[in-house]
Each structure stands twice: as structure tokens, then as C-alpha cells.
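We emphasize that the prediction below concerns an isolated chain of 140 residues; any contacts that depend on oligomerization or on bound cofactors are therefore not represented. The input was used exactly as deposited, without trimming of termini.
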Amino acid sequence: MLKKYTSEQFWKLYEKLPQELKDALFADETGNNIYEVCQRNETEENLEDIVDLVGQVLAGVLAPDDFQETLIKELKLEKEVAKKTAQEINRFIFYPVRTDLEKLYQTKVTAPEKPAEVVIIPREESAGPKKDDTYREPVE
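Result of the prediction step, given as a C-alpha cell string:
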């Protein structure tokens, strides 16, 4: 079960945080990113719990490395959904404040995985005779 903290406990933790993490905890952008990640991964029903978990990571209670496993164990998300959700949250929320998180947890926050490289394969020109473009006017 997710551990809930009292307001008093939270504010004691909050006071000790670096300013960048304090800002990230209450930033509109953080909330918007969590909401969008949940929409993309169809985990809106767990939005409140995911917000709590992100807050625990930013407050120094839950290590970023344990975030994905906690999504699986506590929220009962499928492994693939939890992986994608954790990767996106890592990319949009944890990675921008990684230096403060690394100091807080005395560990390295890994860079988000790069998406698969998109390779564009050019179409081959047809082997038939080239025709003049009848829709264009001749250039003089």
C-alpha cells in the first residue's frame, strides 16, 4: 500500500529540499506532464496515485530507480505500461532536476532512453519514361 504522509511530515521533508525540487513539486508543468503521460499510457484511473509517487520521488522518499517497480507492485500496472509510464515521467519530470535528485539520493539518475531512430527510406523512381509535367508552365 502506498505510504501516505501527514501534512506535518511532508512540510518537514519539503523544508530540507533544494529550491529546484521545491519548484518542481508545485509546478503547473509537472502536473500537466503527469496528466499527459497518464493519458498517453491510459493510466488516468491511477492519476492521483502516480502524482503521489512522483511527489515522493521529488521529496526524497522514493528513489527514482524504484519508481517503475512501485508502479507495478503498488498500482498493479502491467510491466510494459509501467515501463513506458516511468520512462516518460523520468524524461519530462525527473531528468530536468537530475542533479538535485542525484545529490538527494546520492546516486546517478540515468538519462531517459532515446526513442528508436526513425529511418526514412526514399521511394525508388519508376523505371518508365519521364513525362513532362503538364500542370506547370514552361520557364523561359
